Amino acid sequence: MKLLVRDKFPEMKVKTTKGDINLPNDYKGKWFVFFSHPADFTPVCTTEFVAFQKRMEMFKKINTELIGLSVDTVEEHFAWIKWIKGNIGVDIEFPIIDDSDKKISKELGMIREDEEDSTTARSVVIVDFKATVRTILEYPKELGRNMDEILRIVKGLQVASGKHLFPPANWPNNEIMGDKVLLPAGTKFTEEEAKEQGICKLSDWFMYKNLD
Ligand code: BEZ
């Protein structure tokens, strides 16, 4: 069964380059980005791993861990990360899951089951501190992901959850309101109340304000 947004992330014990991890319990109170890649020792995936590693501290600053997965074995993951360190000078520090039996990728719907020798998609599952799936993305094998967008999604969801304010398109560089954020539809303020609270009200259903 395919995982859907708002599902609880299923409980599972996974074998990784950092030892066994119990998901989602070992990440209690934290957000995590769970992503799959098609294969170790492939060019686009290598650029993705370097890009994720370069932003790992930025993810940690927003209480978010990274965890990768492919249908390669832990031994293949170790050989690939050694190659990345030796040739690109980047140490991959986040855990990578061995899903060589394809059990997890099948359970989470990250792999086609109707093709022989299929491999994992470029899937991204963003899970919040209560183990609820908040975003699912899938990219084709031909295109590397944008890690700044993944960071933006986590930051935007944390604003939406923590303050109940909704980041607009292209936030924090929105065409109408810059880095301001929207009040959810259904929020009620008179013109006077909106003015007092620094809310810009274009309509009863379109209001925005600074993120303080
Ligand atoms: C790549 O990462 O470059 C790649 C992986 C699998 C299929 C095609 C490309």
Automatic annotation (TrEMBL):
GO terms for molecular function: thioredoxin peroxidase activity. Keywords: Antioxidant, Cytoplasm, Oxidoreductase, Peroxidase, Redox-active center. It is found in: Cytoplasm. Substrate binds at R122. Its EC number is 1.11.1.24. One of its GO terms (biological process) is cell redox homeostasis. GO terms for cellular component: cytosol. It catalyses: a hydroperoxide + [thioredoxin]-dithiol = an alcohol + [thioredoxin]-disulfide + H2O. Residues 3-159 form the Thioredoxin domain. Its main location: cytoplasm. It is an enzyme of class 1 (oxidoreductase). InterPro entries: AhpC/TSA, Peroxiredoxin, Peroxiredoxin_AhpC-typ, Peroxiredoxin_TDXH, Thioredoxin-like_sf, Thioredoxin_domain. The active site is at C45 (cysteine sulfenic acid (-soh) intermediate), C45 (cysteine sulfenic acid (-soh) intermediate). The active site is a conserved redox-active cysteine residue, the peroxidatic cysteine (C(P)), which makes the nucleophilic attack on the peroxide substrate. The peroxide oxidizes the C(P)-SH to cysteine sulfenic acid (C(P)-SOH), which then reacts with another cysteine residue, the resolving cysteine (C(R)), to form a disulfide bridge. The disulfide is subsequently reduced by an appropriate electron donor to complete the catalytic cycle. In this 1-Cys peroxiredoxin, no C(R) is present and C(P) instead forms a disulfide with a cysteine from another protein or with a small thiol molecule. Belongs to the peroxiredoxin family. Prx6 subfamily. Homodecamer. Pentamer of dimers that assemble into a ring structure. Thiol-specific peroxidase that catalyzes the reduction of hydrogen peroxide and organic hydroperoxides to water and alcohols, respectively. Plays a role in cell protection against oxidative stress by detoxifying peroxides. This is Peroxiredoxin.
